[in-house]
Amino acid sequence: LTRDAPPTHFILKIESFSSLASTTLKRYESCEFDAGDYKWRLALYPNGDQNRDYGKDHISLYLVLDKSCRNLKKEISVTFSLFVYDNIRDKYLSVQGVSCFNAMRSLNLFNSPSNGYIISNTCIFGAEVFVIDKTAKGQCLSMVACKPDSYNKFIIWKIENFSALEDKWYSSEMLKVEGYYWKIGLAPKGEATGKGTSLSLYLHSDDANSSVPAGTVVVAEYKLRVVNQINGNHKEFVSTASFSASNRAMGKHQFLDLSNLNKSTGYLVNDTCIVEAEVCVLGSAKTCI
Q1: Where is 217: in which H helix or E strand?
Q2: Residues of the signal sequence (predicted)?
Q3: 2-131 with 139-288: one CATH topology?
Q4: Is this prediction's pTM over 0.70?
């Protein structure tokens, strides 16, 4: 793989590379560098690592954990890349997730100026190291088919003396579906974009019963409805949403225009409004390691 951006954590520039290769020094180890709260070094074999079959006649480059970090008595999981700079194409050739460049290029190809790795007897190597945090958390989402009888469970909320309701939140009784508790939330004078103009209606996962605890997400399909008590032409909203401890209410700010709450429309009869909710739990996700 090649890329334009230089290595993030360390660059090793070697001038007069041919002089280094002509000495009896088999291995050159760079200064230390920091990555992921550990110290590392690059180990370069200018004539290849002769102790390994695949290192002979190839440039060999290794990522090495510094001696100061070798007595930690624990395993360190990392993902890393080693680089060599192509001067002609102005690109960095990288190898990811392996410990060395042994089989990358033969010494003949590497030393040839026409390939761009050595220009004016100078070459550049590099490294990126990312330590994997084994304490990282994950999430498991388990979906289920919506049962045919799930929508037979619904809240029917008959609100009498509706015109006397104040400009605040009201809640219905609870409904238990698949182990989770739900209720209808209603703002008779509107909320947010529906303030003063609309009836706002929501489905809530119930707070008091910790229906959806922290770290859990419940996916549910739901229906909210204002019943037309005259002709059955109900005002209905259907949606699917994810409910969590930080996102317990879903619905519409502008559910029904307040001007439609009267006897002639059928939504308010004898100062009584009937609101319903149906819930079908489709799945849940829980935090896991």
Answers
A1: strand 216-226
A2: none
A3: yes
A4: no
